[in-house]
Amino acid sequence: MTLKPAFLIAFATLFHCASAPAAELDVPVSGFGSLDHVFLILMENETDTDIIGNPNAPFINAYARVANQATQYFAVGHPSAPNYLEIVGGSNFGLRNDFWPSWQGMGCIDNAPNSSGCQNAFTPVSVAGQDNAVVATAVDSAQCNGEVDPRGAPATNNCALRDYPATLFTPKSIANQLVAAKKSWKTYQESLPSLTGPVFGINYADGTWSNLSPADVSGPGPIQKLYAVKHNPFAYFRDIEVGTEPALSLARVADFSGNHGLWAELQTGVASLSLIVPNQCHDMHGFVAGGPPVCRSETDAEKALLMKEGDAALAQLVNGIENAPVWKQGRNVIVVVWDENDYSNAANRVVMLVETNYATNHRISNRSYDHYSLLRTLEAGFGLPCLNHACDATSQVMDDLFGAPEK
After folding, report:
1. How far apart are alpha carbons 395 and 164 in whole angstroms?
2. Residue 141 sits in which domain range?
3. Is residue 77 part of a domain?
4. What pTM does this model have?
5. What distance in Å separates the CA atoms of residue 391 and residue 407, rounded to the nearest whole number?
6. Model confidence band, residue 41 (pLDDT cutoffs 50, 70, 90)
7. Does residue 12 sit within a domain?
8. DSSP labels, 9-20
9. Do the domain assignments include residue 16?
10. What letter does residue 103 receive in the DSSP assignment?
11. How far apart are CA 129 and CA 132, in angstroms?
């Protein structure tokens, strides 16, 4: 037998660990018990200080006083699409920007005039790989994927709560986990195209948005860009795009309206996890291109109107859930969270609110959390193993916000 030097053994062990994909580990421990239904509402692009105390968001500010509020909750980085993936999968899966998915069997579909979106089409997640590193504080714009320009001295945590080195990921989302556990998921995407079934409808959305104008869908436009596939994270996974298993397919994507939409299913029954995404007029995103000039945010007056629209839309959603029969069935939570801040050089801290139907609300948490903490908390509530960065020691279950007994 040939003995290897100790340093070679250590190096081989390190290399083996670094080359192995991240695994699903133990089920996180929940101090608040199990969850039956989660209504996760995702809003867009506002720093917490832009909303809390803003008279143009009366519902959100009133809701923050009665729900549970995290005062130190951070996005994981920039821009939108990676944050959505980090919420549902614990990783950015190598997606560096709001790039469009390359659809299975069809490649990247681009119906937007003068667009170059397909030049960076993203291959849907299907195999293990390495995600992109995220830094807490950027010293140049490339460290935030070009979305934050740290002019002058960089602000602390202008990208993320903490540094996340590039890590090997498991190519799964919480959708895979729920289905494996005999539970269910669905995402409701407001203003989803209604063209010849869900697959073509999502696919038609010019890689980024849908055609909601009176123009013929096969014509040149104008295209009113309200739905955004970058806000539909499950569409970035190959198994869901292919849809071999109905429980893991684009059939689990629906609009707010329609027989199988959000408003109807709040009356008849919903999935274990409902990811609810308002359109870009209602999620405070703005910058909607194409068609008539709506949802602009170039002036202070337009920004105020956009905030009012988002506040009213969120009020409708929360009140609709609270008054639905399903809210009284089982142990349920409403989570309202913003994906990232407003691209400023401020800390990437956002509003995060939780309401439970099984515990006393009105708690304020000053603990530091981020999107990975949220995923770990949902997995704890559903009895699922932690996934990717949700397994990190820094990703803590948010017991205080989800109604665990106070110690």
Report:
1. 11
2. 23-391
3. yes
4. 0.90
5. 24
6. very high
7. no
8. HHHHHHHHHHHS
9. no
10. B
11. 10
